[in-house]
Amino acid sequence: MSSFLCSLLLTFIFTSQISTATTDATGKFRYICDQGNDDGNYTTNSTYHTNLKTLLSTLTSNKDINYGFYNSSYGVNTDKVNAIGLCRGDVKPDDCQNCLQNSTALLTQLCQNRKEAIGWYDDEKCMLRSSHRLIFGINEMGPAMIAWNLQNATKEVEDEFDKGLKNLLYNLKNLAASGESDLKYAVGSDVIGPNNNQTIFALVQCTPDLSETLCDECLDKSIKEIPNCCDNRIGIGGRFLRPSCYLRYETNSLFYQQTQDSPSSSSSSPSPTPSPASVPSFSAPPPFAENTTSSPGIYHIKLMKRS
Ligand SMILES: *[C@@H]1O[C@H](CO)[C@@H](O)[C@H](O)[C@H]1NC(C)=O
Ligand SMILES: *[C@@H]1O[C@H](CO)[C@@H](O)[C@H](O)[C@H]1NC(C)=O
Ligand SMILES: *[C@@H]1O[C@H](CO)[C@@H](O)[C@H](O)[C@H]1NC(C)=O
Ligand SMILES: *[C@@H]1O[C@H](CO)[C@@H](O)[C@H](O)[C@H]1NC(C)=O
Ligand SMILES: *[C@@H]1O[C@H](CO)[C@@H](O)[C@H](O)[C@H]1NC(C)=O
Ligand SMILES: *[C@@H]1O[C@H](CO)[C@@H](O)[C@H](O)[C@H]1NC(C)=O
Ligand SMILES: *[C@@H]1O[C@H](CO)[C@@H](O)[C@H](O)[C@H]1NC(C)=O
Q1: Which of 109, 143, 228, 306 has its Cβ near the most Cβ atoms within 10 Å?
Q2: Cα 22 to Cα 304: distance, rounded to the nearest angstrom
Q3: Ligand 3 atom at shortest distance from the alpha carbon of 95
């Protein structure tokens, strides 16, 4: 009803093979019910439905998992359900579980009866997906949501921005891909501009069940799509939300926590991250609001099918 209305009112750029995606009423949860692929539906109260509920309600129950990745299955044969929950590498275990629990409620409600569904909660602090297909250890580039800030890098720094951004992202990609099987995540920053007054912050992450090669492939394809993905413009911020990997960058807004409690991510800063003293006035991350105007913080969104 209200979410249905919302999805009608939102402005999306549709590619030729589009699935329906939308945002929940609070604007915190973005999801794709995979209508474009049409992987089929389950019947309410069927075994599949029961298995899905059981799986999702127990997904984060293993309190030994402190690295933000949950992958499991429940059921047998055609009623087997698979799910992956992944938290952004800088999200603490308690927040991670909370984020995935909230996502569980939203995803099952918003993608009711869909056998395949994916959603990202609260600035992509976590991703939750469920499927009847085997989804572990494989690289899935879609369904994807790509968003880019409609404010371009200024003309005077355009080339430098492009080069600096790509260089940063490729470095981070290598770090993330070579990460352990519990965390494939890297963050870093680069400073550009005439007065060194522009800092690009970036974050990349793969589901850690991917091999180094597959993680590399997923992130590499995402980086190579800049700026072709996005009306051939390099916005000052951008996000690639895919089932297997996540990439985000922002200019002059630090959107991730620099203090990590996970051991493997402390080594994941390739370029010197400015100390807080040298970046005193960076604004809060822009909201992920979609529209077709050109104001800062406004993103355009493109959706892509699984294949
Ligand atoms: C599943 O449900 C959706 C939404 O109700 C519908 O559009 C789609 O055609 C259904 N798919 C199948 C295979 O029945
Ligand atoms: C599913 O089960 C619940 C709880 O037993 C029941 O209230 C509901 O009516 C059932 N729905 C359908 C469509 O069978
Ligand atoms: C989950 O939802 C509850 C209730 O709406 C909210 O208080 C909490 O902050 C949410 N968790 C996260 C991680 O956003
Ligand atoms: C950076 O410095 C240049 C040159 O002084 C100025 O034009 C630009 O607005 C500054 N950018 C920011 C983000 O402060
Ligand atoms: C979950 O992922 C880990 C690697 O991160 C892997 O060792 C494990 O086998 C996976 N579980 C399933 C059910 O595929
Ligand atoms: C950004 O760049 C694109 C492509 O060059 C251009 O069409 C657009 O007008 C620019 N936007 C702004 C706000 O300058
Ligand atoms: C979003 O863009 C549309 C079309 O450009 C415009 O009509 C609408 O007023 C904008 N909404 C907001 C909240 O800026």
Answers
A1: 143
A2: 13
A3: 13
Question: Which ligand has an atom closest to residue 45 CA?
Answer: 2
The CATH class for the domain spanning 146-304 reads alpha beta
- Residue 87 CA to residue 69 CA, distance in Å, equals 6
pLDDT of residue 194: 81
Angle at 230 between CA 224 and CA 232, to 5 degrees: 80
Averaged confidence pLDDT in the chain? 83
| 201 neighbors 285 (Cβ within 8 angstroms) | no
* Ligand 4 centroid distance, CA of 151 (Å): 15
- Average pLDDT on 32-60 reads 91
CATH 3.30.70.1350 is held by the domain 2-138:
no
What residue's CA is closest to ligand 4, atom 8?
A: 197
What pLDDT, on a 0 to 100 scale, did the predictor assign at position 4? Answer: 34
Q: Which residues contact 113 (CB under 8 A, 6 or more apart)?
A: 41, 42, 43, 44, 49
Q: Are strands 144-149 and 198-206 parallel, antiparallel or unpaired?
A: unpaired
Phi, psi at 174, each rounded to 5°: -65, -40
Q: What is the mean pLDDT of residues 196-224?
A: 96
Instruction: Please name the residues in contact with 122: beta carbons below 8 A apart, sequence gap of 6 or more.
Output: 28, 29, 99, 102
pLDDT over 70 at 136, yes or no: yes
Rounded to an integer, what distance in angstroms lies between the CA atom of residue 166 and that of residue 182? 26
Residue 304 has pLDDT above 80, yes or no: yes
> Residues of CATH 3.30.430.20 domain(s) within the chain?
2-138, 146-304
